[in-house]
Amino acid sequence: MPPDENLMKKSPSPVDRHVGSRVRMRRITVGMSQEKLGEALGVTFQQIQKYEKGANRISASRMQSIAQVLGVPVSFFFDGAPREEGVPMAVGFAEGGQSDYAADIFSTPEGVALARAFASIEDARVRRRVVDLVMTLVEGQRRA
Q1: 0.85 exceeded by pTM
Q2: What is the pLDDT of residues 5-30, one digit of tens each?
Q3: Boundaries of every domain in the chain
Q4: Hey, which of 33, 35, 43, 106 has its CA 20 to 30 A from 89?
Q5: End-to-end alpha carbon distance in the chain
Q6: How far does CA 59 lie from the centroid of its chain?
Q7: Which helix (H) or strand (E) holds 112?
């Protein structure tokens, strides 16, 4: 049986990077530092950095611990993950290759701040106007 090609590579696989970005997104969303997550898991913040970059793979038991600390099911880390080459997709369960916008937004402190502020707006009309404003800004950026 040939060895797993990703184990032989020095660069992280797309799935490892995706899982790491989901860990980072959730950690930032709950307002936890890398140091605090590391303390809860008994590892250094440098190890958390490596997990979040996908440089170090996360074992199943460690992933279970991370999920518990961050308050999500393990499956959360795989939502929107890229497919591995050569692995057939189950018929009827394909999602059509959508981008995971939540991961993109919550992977930055600005995105988290924006989401928190937006969620605190109680008036639905004001929220709609904020969305309209952002869409107008995006359209203007595309034209420029």
Answers
A1: no
A2: 545 557 888 899 999 999 998 998 88
A3: 5-83+102-107
A4: 106
A5: 53
A6: 17
A7: helix 109-119
Residue 109, classified by CB atoms within 10 Å of its CB into exposed (0-12), middle (13-18) or buried (19+), is exposed
- Token output for 46: 């440098």
Q: What is the CATH number of domain 5-83+102-107?
A: 1.10.260.40
Report whether 53 contacts 20 (CB < 8 A): yes
CA 62 to centroid of chain Cα atoms? 17
* Token pair of 45 as six digits: 């913040």
User: Residue 20 has which token pair?
Assistant: 């790491």
Decide: 77 and 63 in contact? Cβ < 8 Å. Answer: yes
Both tokens of residue 118? 């937006």
Contact between 103 and 22 under an 8 Å Cβ cutoff? The reply is: yes
Higher pLDDT, 38 or 120: 38
> Residue 10: left (phi > 0), alpha (psi -120 to 50), or beta?
alpha
